[in-house]
Amino acid sequence: MSLEYVRRWYSRIPELEKDLPVLLYNGKVYTPREIYNEVVRGTALGRKLQEKLEELGSAYSFSYEDLRGLDYVAKIRAEQVIKNLPKGFKMVSIVNGQRITWTPEELKNSELFKKAVEYEKKKVIETLRG
Amino acid sequence: MKILFLESISGRYDELKYASCVAHKYAEELRRKGHKVIEITRPTPRQANEAIKKYKPDIVWWVGHGDADKATLEKLKVWISTTANTDILRDSVAVAHACFTGLKLGKEAVKKGAKAYFGYTKELWFQWCNDPEYYNCACSENNPYGVRPRLWKRILESSHVGSLTFIKSLAEGKDYKTAFEDSIEEFERYKKEFENTKPQTPSEGAILRVQIWALENNKEAQVMYLGTGEVKTQISPVKSLVVAGLIMLPLLGLVFLGGEKSA
Predict the structure, then answer these.
(1) What is the pLDDT of residue A99?
(2) B32 and B121 both lie in a single domain
(3) Are residues B210 and B245 located together in one domain of the fold?
(4) Is A84 on the interface with B (CB under 8 A)?
(5) Complex prediction ipTM
(6) How many domains does one find in chain A?
(7) Residue among A5, A26, A9, A28 at smallest CA distance from A17
(8) How many distinct structural domains can be found in chain B?
(9) pLDDT band at A68 (very low <50, low <70, confident <90, very high)
(10) Range of the structural domain that residue A66 is part of
(11) Residues 86-125 of A with CB under 8 A from B
(12) What does B105-164 look like in DSSP terms, one character per residue?
């Protein structure tokens, strides 16, 4: 384990990803920025997070528990994005005879949200791999 | 090449204006390149039919609310359905910027003589601002969300570029399959741009992210029918393996994830 590993990993992460949760540890989710800061400060938590990061980042197979963790992190990311949407925000889908506008809360029950969670899971794996 | 754009503005609100604004921009570009471009704003079904009969366009683009078996124009007026008027598209390339029409209507149009049909098999998503203060939000950089103006314009455009890039590529002389691939590539370019944009506020970051979700969805919803069969977005090998793996999950407990690992 080295600080350099985390520095290199962090430097490759696009800006938009840095504040979205990527790792679940002890029931709490952490963003790349939080992981990086803990590691740089040399805390005990930082060491644990780096350990988990290196384990998942180099994995070609995941345990059932890890996969459930990835699903959870993906859902939290999608929910966090929706929570940060500005007041009055709406999406539109041009479907005949059905609902066409969606508020952030309503989006959570849409097909787009299911798609979003799937996409976020893919991004979590990509980010972990660096 | 002769290209007809049927630029509806209102469905239930002025939501169709968002796509029509982007279409207008592409229409001007195609005109500058020497193509014969006809634009009809707020078309009724009758006007659309008359324009097709008069100009005999090689390509017809329209935006409207859609279902698997029908497509509408201005004010939700049904224009074509699997049981009526599909033959109006005979000998043209039909480009439908409308949800779900890629499920049934596209197949029927090709059966009735359309050279190709570009549509969507799912909902098509985009952002908007239904706010009187931002009346021309669809066609300007103004927005009520505090997103930087130029970035907002890029976000708005990006949901609608697929079908229009397809037309642009055909007009450049590319074949159907290459033009379809170009339209997918265009989504990827926008996604990459948004992913690498540093948001100035959390809400700008959220708006960018939701737009990436929309692009991911819209890209996968695209479909094209030719006389020879269906062309659909290719799912990457990595994703296919994840999906396959998840189906196996209850049995094995372990999932193989493919793809190359970065150094």
Answers:
(1) 66
(2) yes
(3) no
(4) yes
(5) 0.88
(6) 1
(7) A9
(8) 2
(9) very high
(10) 3-129
(11) 86, 88-97, 100-101, 107, 111-112, 115-116, 119, 121-122, 125
(12) HHHHHHHTT-SEEEEESS--EEEE---GGGTTGGGSS--TT---HHHHHHHHHHTTHHHH
CB-CB contact of B204 with B172 (8 Å): no
Do B170 and B263 belong together in one domain?
Answer: no
Are B124 and B111 contained in the same domain? yes
Give residue-wise pLDDT tens across range A28-47.
Answer: 999 999 999 999 999 999 99
Residue B156 contacts A where some CB pair is shorter than 8 Å: no
Model confidence pLDDT, tens digit, residues B59-109: 999 999 999 999 999 999 999 999 999 999 999 999 999 999 999 999 999
Same domain, B117 and B142: yes
| CB A100, CB A93: distance < 8 Å | yes
Confidence (pLDDT) at A1: 59
Q: Please answer yes or no on whether B207 and A85 come within 8 Å at the CB atom.
A: yes
Tens-digit pLDDT profile for residues A69-80: 999 999 999 999
Instruction: Examine the domain organization and report whether B186 and B247 are in the same domain.
Output: no
Nearest by CB to residue B203, choosing from A84, A121, A130, is A84
Confidence label for B247 from pLDDT (cuts 50, 70 and 90): very low
Measured between CA atoms, the residue of chain A closest to residue B78 is A96
User: What's the confidence (pLDDT) of residue B248?
Assistant: 31
Question: Does residue B208 sit in the same domain as residue B250?
Answer: no
d(CA B4, CA B58): 8
CB-nearest to A92 from B15, B205, B242 is: B15
Contact in structure between B126 and B156 (CB atoms under 8 Å):
yes
- Containing domain of residue B154, as a range? 2-232
Facing A112 at nearest CB: one of B99, B217, B242: B217
In Å, how far is B128's CA from the nearest CA of chain A?
6
The pTM score is 0.87
**B137/A contact by beta carbon, under 8 A:** no
Query: Do B25 and B137 belong to one domain?
Result: yes
Which stretches within chain A are classed as H helix? 3-11, 32-41, 44-57, 64-83, 104-107, 111-129
